[in-house]
Amino acid sequence: MGSCVTFGSADGAHMLIGVPKETKIHEYRVGLIPGNVRELVAHGHRVVVESGAGGAIGMTDAHYEEAGASIADSPAEVFAEAEMIVKVKEPLAPERAMLRQGQILFTYLHLAPDPDQTEDLLDSGATCIAYETVTSPSGGLPLLAPMSEVAGRMSVQAGAYYLEKTHYGLGILLGGVPGVDPGKVVVIGGGVVGTHAIHIALGMGADVWELDSNIKQLNT
Fold first, then answer.
1. Which pTM does this prediction carry?
2. Is 5 part of a structural domain of the chain?
3. Long-range residue pairs from 117-122, CB within 8 A, at least 24 positions apart, any chain
4. d(Cα 145, Cα 157) in Å, to the nearest integer?
5. Secondary structure (DSSP) of the chain
6. What is the pLDDT of residues 21-56, one digit of tens each?
């Protein structure tokens, strides 16, 4: 996560914020980077980070300590100390078991397809805030939008990969070459994901078609 939210209660009380290492397979991000920690500490909060939490993005424990965080040896220590837990992905069962009454969890949750997680979070008594439900005054989803941007851009990259003959595709080069037409890309829906997919496909030189029921979106 590259942005920072200033945490605190209405009366200005400071908090102890915990950042555990992500445990979901192929999740390499971390809830707070050292720059986020530095800003939180400057506002009077305390931050505890699990050892190795930022390793996958090249951030060492020393980087976090220099920013003002303390380092915990285990996730259990982070969950036990922190008033608020800041993560990236939804907590797995062992993490949910460490949540407690009155604690705050701030992360992506995606509860709709996961009734077990929903039940565990309700039983924990913690206040759980999902990034994907945070809404701006204009009705947008500012914490979900960056992930949608990434998904849109990666979709074309992944599609181009699987069009290669060596990956059992049709051997189509999206950008084409002199004498060979470019590949065609059809994007269904011109929302955040679709817009960024179109941007990348056009940049690769593909013949891009957008399908959307909103005429205003097609005109942009």
1. 0.82
2. no
3. 117/90, 117/91, 120/93, 120/96, 121/91, 121/96
4. 19
5. ---------TT----EEEEPPP-STT----S--HHHHHHHHHTT-EEEEETTTTGGGT--HHHHHHHT-EEESSHHHHHHH-SEEE-SSPPPHHHHTT--TT-EEEE----TT-HHHHHHHHHHT-EEEEGGG---TTS--TTTHHHHHHHHHHHHHHHHHHHSGGGTS----TT-BTTBPPPEEEEE--SHHHHHHHHHHHHTT-EEEEE-S-HHHHH-
6. 999 999 999 999 999 999 999 999 999 999 999 999
Tokens representing 189 are 């829906």
The range of the structural domain enclosing residue 114 comes to: 16-133
Give dist(CA 142, CA 122) in Å, integer. Answer: 25
Which of 75, 73, 1 is closest to 32 using CA atoms? 1
Residues 35 and 107 in one domain: yes
Is the CB of residue 32 less than 8 Å from the CB of residue 1?
A: yes
pLDDT of 116 over the 80 cut: yes
Q: Could you say which of 71, 102, 133 is where a domain stops?
A: 133
The Cα 208–Cα 186 span in angstroms is 6
- Residue 69's CATH number: 3.40.50.720
